[in-house]
């Protein structure tokens, strides 16, 4: 039709961690903080930088191709925050995505949908 229908990407504010997980650029970690679960997968430098930002209270948007470690990182962040006795709501747009990270759907959490 001749119209550009790509989504507008808002400007990024604050620190960024590469363009996506698995990209070649990274931000140095402000300080080592080991994930809390013994035997948990090791995080690479870029994941560790995002982990540190999350524990500092920064908002994150995780993006990357399949298999780049987004869910692994998210589980580590959730575990660390819960270990610090922080209340964590793990939400996802679909049931499959929610199951993958041990969460629930946004609709279910908000009480929308089929009445009980």
TrEMBL record:
<keyword id="KW-0347">Helicase</keyword>
<keyword id="KW-0227">DNA damage</keyword>
<dbReference type="GO" id="GO:0006310">
    <property type="term" value="P:DNA recombination"/>
</dbReference>
<dbReference type="GO" id="GO:0000723">
    <property type="term" value="P:telomere maintenance"/>
</dbReference>
<keyword id="KW-0234">DNA repair</keyword>
<dbReference type="InterPro" id="IPR051055">
    <property type="entry name" value="PIF1_helicase"/>
</dbReference>
<protein>
    <recommendedName>
        <fullName>ATP-dependent DNA helicase</fullName>
        <ecNumber>5.6.2.3</ecNumber>
    </recommendedName>
</protein>
<keyword id="KW-0378">Hydrolase</keyword>
<dbReference type="Pfam" id="PF05970">
    <property type="entry name" value="PIF1"/>
</dbReference>
<keyword id="KW-0233">DNA recombination</keyword>
<dbReference type="GO" id="GO:0043139">
    <property type="term" value="F:5'-3' DNA helicase activity"/>
</dbReference>
<dbReference type="InterPro" id="IPR027417">
    <property type="entry name" value="P-loop_NTPase"/>
</dbReference>
<dbReference type="GO" id="GO:0006281">
    <property type="term" value="P:DNA repair"/>
</dbReference>
<comment type="similarity">
    <text>Belongs to the helicase family. PIF1 subfamily.</text>
</comment>
<dbReference type="GO" id="GO:0005524">
    <property type="term" value="F:ATP binding"/>
</dbReference>
<keyword id="KW-0547">Nucleotide-binding</keyword>
<keyword id="KW-0067">ATP-binding</keyword>
<feature type="compositionally biased region" description="Low complexity">
    <location>
        <begin position="18"/>
        <end position="28"/>
    </location>
</feature>
<dbReference type="InterPro" id="IPR010285">
    <property type="entry name" value="DNA_helicase_pif1-like_DEAD"/>
</dbReference>
<feature type="region of interest" description="Disordered">
    <location>
        <begin position="1"/>
        <end position="42"/>
    </location>
</feature>
<feature type="domain" description="DNA helicase Pif1-like DEAD-box helicase">
    <location>
        <begin position="43"/>
        <end position="114"/>
    </location>
</feature>
<dbReference type="GO" id="GO:0016787">
    <property type="term" value="F:hydrolase activity"/>
</dbReference>
């Amino acid at each position: 039709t001749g119209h550009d229908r790509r989504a507008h990407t808002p400007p990024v504010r604050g620190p960024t961690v590469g363009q996506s997980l698995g990209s070649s650029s990274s931000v140095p970690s402000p300080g080592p903080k080991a994930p809390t679960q013994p035997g948990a997968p090791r995080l690479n430098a870029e994941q560790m930088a995002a982990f540190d930002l999350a524990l500092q209270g920064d908002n994150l948007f995780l993006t990357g191709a399949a298999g780049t470690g987004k869910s692994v990182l998210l589980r580590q962040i959730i575990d660390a925050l819960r270990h610090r006795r922080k209340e964590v709501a793990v939400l996802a747009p679909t049931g499959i995505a929610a199951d993958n990270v041990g969460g629930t759907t946004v609709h279910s959490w908000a009480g929308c949908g089929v009445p009980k």
